[in-house]
Design brief:
239 residues, alpha/beta, 5-stranded parallel β-sheet, two-stranded antiparallel sheet, 11 strands
Length: 239
């Protein structure tokens, strides 16, 4: 049994590697900085189609216009917020967008009541910190930090479940496009292609309401529930 067959759930970029490789190989349109394929190819990957002899299975069954808005948002380096009821494929769409754009959907922070500001920015290996003092080797970089360095997209799941001070840590990152590390005297600028895709559950409204300042840093796309029983059955069959 191969290593892949032992894993319960593979990342999207591994599960659909053949489709992604086919789209990259057949690319005919301009590819934005930091992306692996053009926005048109990302749309084909998400909504389905065909490239050469390869059939691209639809990853999101719903309004294509919403996917187009999401992709257009990320092209401009603006952050994207996906909002909807439970089961409207917010996390699923977020994962597949990052898989298509960067080939790595694993830069993710799961928002909970216990999420801290250090998980958004950076923390330290305290044994090394005490022994050697602050150094790049002692730093533990968050997924957002790594995405800024690499010019990639980071994901923040269930952002409305994070405490307000944790949410506020994103405001300066999205505004200034840099992280300050005063312990090392560093200012780490975001590379071209950096962005954040966050998701929020409408059922969590009132848990930790996002501030107006933070909302302004996102382009918000509301994902609706399936309109018909046939559409819902197609989603179940596809998944």
């Amino acid at each position: 049994m191969s290593e892949k067959t032992k894993v319960q759930r593979l990342p999207a970029e591994q599960l659909f590697q053949k489709e992604l490789d086919a789209l990259i190989a057949a690319e005919q349109y301009p590819v934005p900085s930091g992306w692996r394929m053009s926005p048109r190819s990302v749309l084909t990957y998400i909504c389905g189609g065909r490239v050469g002899d390869t059939v691209i299975t639809p990853k999101y069954i719903g309004h294509q216009r919403l996917v187009e808005i999401a992709i257009s948002t990320l092209v401009t380096d603006r952050a994207l917020l996906l909002i909807g009821e439970p089961g409207t494929a917010k996390s699923w769409l977020s994962e597949h967008l990052t898989a298509a754009i960067n080939g790595d959907s694993t830069r993710v922070i799961q928002g909970t009541a216990g999420t801290t500001e250090e998980q958004i920015r950076y923390s330290w290996n305290y044994a090394m910190l005490i022994a050697q003092g602050p150094s790049p080797a002692a730093m533990l970089k968050s997924p957002v930090y790594r995405a800024m360095e690499e010019g990639a997209i980071a994901r923040v799941e269930e952002i409305s479940r994070c405490a307000s001070e944790v949410q506020d840590a994103l405001i300066s990152i999205l505004s200034e496009k840099r992280i300050s590390v005063p312990e090392l005297g560093l200012e780490v600028p975001a590379q071209k292609g950096f962005s954040i895709i966050a998701t929020a559950n409408t059922r969590d409204k009132g848990v930790n309401d996002m501030s107006a300042a933070l909302k302004r840093r996102f382009n918000i796309v509301v994902l609706p529930a399936p309109e018909t029983i046939e559409e819902e059955m197609e989603i179940v069959r596809t998944r």
